Amino acid sequence: MADAGRQRVTMLHHWAIAHPILAFPLVYLGWAYLFWIPLLVSESSVWGFPQVLWFLIGGASPVLAGLGLAALTGGKRQLLDLAQRLVDLRRIPGKWWLLILSFWLVFDLGMAGLAVLLGVTDSPLDVHWSLLLNPGTLVFLLLLSFIFPAVEEVGLRGYYLEALQGHMGPTAAGLVNGAVWAAWHTPFVWFPGYYANTTFNPALAWWLPMIVCQTLMIVHVHNHTGRSLLAVLVFHGMMNFTGEWLRISPAMYPFMLVGNFLVAVLLVVFWRRQSRLEG
């Protein structure tokens, strides 16, 4: 029995190494969708019991897939590498801390200003100023903004982006990584009551391509901070927190896709130019 078990693990090890592009999505999406099927056929709020239990178990798929495949393909060495990238502050230069912490505020305010100038909407934001005077609510929102990215980034960028960039350039790796991330988020629009207490009400037509564009930004942060998981986690968390604090108008989001797309295109052009210079 023990020999048969070791043989199966060895076979899985070889398969995961031989199929780095497929292995993560199969575990990541397969685990999540398995537990989210009851939510998709339920009419009860996702935040009720036991629906929230199925949601959280399925939602753990990024960290389960990332840590599981890291242990399977790279063993203790790869797990230690993930841990170090998550806690090592020295990987992130000071100028990158400034960019990571300020980018989404500057970007969102800039897009809001453009929206007013171009007549997209006269009320792009509804800033939640009282949040700054309510420590309890502020701490709760900060926790929500950063806990979910912590779960997602370990697998998506900690393991999968590394695997992808071992076989393709940053543009292709970012597009594949982003498409898989978007596929994971797709069912959220059908979870009853999931966005009931937020200002966010996504439509797949603009949300999924926006996720892919934001992934390319995350790839840029990852590759310029010594592969830091902490950097991409904070960048992702600041995106969530800034959007909720500024309370971006629903009418703004299709327009926000344009801004995200332009930033992503600029990054791709920059990477290609950099690649030519280095070549």
Description of the molecule:
The chain has 279 residues and is mainly alpha-helical. The chain has helices at 2-18, 20-40, 51-59, 61-87, 94-118, 135-165, 170-185, 204-223, 229-246, 253-278. Helix 7 packs across helix 8. The model has no long low-confidence stretch (mean pLDDT 94).
Report the span from N to C terminus: 52 Å
Tell me the helix content: over 70%
Q: Tell me, briefly, the overall form.
A: globular
Query: What kind of sheet is the major sheet?
Result: none
Radius of gyration: 20 Å
Mean pLDDT comes to: 94
Going by helix content, strand content and strand pairing, the class is mainly alpha
In what range is the share of β-strand residues? under 5%
Number of strand segments: 0
Give a brief description:
By secondary structure, this protein is mostly helical. The model has no long low-confidence stretch (mean pLDDT 94).
Which key features would you list for this structure?
279 residues; mainly alpha; globular
Topology:
Blueprint: H1 2-18, H2 20-40, H3 51-59, H4 61-87, H5 94-118, H6 135-165, H7 170-185, H8 204-223, H9 229-246, H10 253-278
Helix pairs in contact: 1-2, 2-3, 2-4, 2-6, 4-6, 5-9, 6-7, 6-9, 7-8, 8-9, 8-10
